[in-house]
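Entry for the shared binder. Reason: the reviewer on the internal report wants the predicted structure included alongside the sequence.
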Amino acid sequence: MLPRDPPILSCIEIVNVDNQSHTVHIRVEYENEEVLFNSYTIDGREENGQDQQKWISQDWPDKPSQFRVHMRMDADEDWITFESEEKLGEHAIQIAYWIGSDGNGIPVWEPINTDDYTQDCNESIMANPVRREK
């Protein structure tokens, strides 16, 4: 079996479909070094029904490597962690933290193949309604 390379950490986004605002805390470790630790407040859904979305600035290297992304919401003390080792062999990974209409948040990730990968964060993985049902 051939060794499989780690993926590139592509984009991170937060999507809120709840009517209330929430704060999502994100930590990114790249090659065992913390390169991002910040909190992001996202407004509630607009009156016209428009979801709120926020892209996180890509403050990590754009090359394949071992990384971990830790996420939690509001005052919750439990971090949810995504590790690149779980997705060896994928070209890149895009991660979203989705806050549902019930106010609960879950992380979602999606592999991106070589042909579709771009450094620009312009397409939400949460735009697909099938994804939202998971």
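Summary line for the report: Strands lie at 8-16, 22-30, 33-42, 52-55, 67-73, 80-83, 92-99, 105-112.
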